[in-house]
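Lecture notes, unit on protein representations.

Consider one protein chain, 87 amino acids long.
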Amino acid sequence: DLLDKKGWHLDRIQFPNALHMMVNPHHAEIVDTFLKDLRETVDEVVKNPEKSSDGDAAIYGMVASLPDRDKVKDYIVNFLKSQYKIK
């Protein structure tokens, strides 16, 4: 979530926990900026661990910990429906 605030949008993955990133030659121009922002963000979470349990990261972590995978599917489907309502 802290990287999102800096304009970086990484996809979260579970089983195993990971981040998904797409990288192409155009990113060569911004790699130093990304690494700087990543270092700052990691430092901020290390100093303030409660920041890792805020926002979308907290929701994602909670959903990942649910033992009933059918409930996870229901949650995700309902969330997506709420995001993509046609008016």
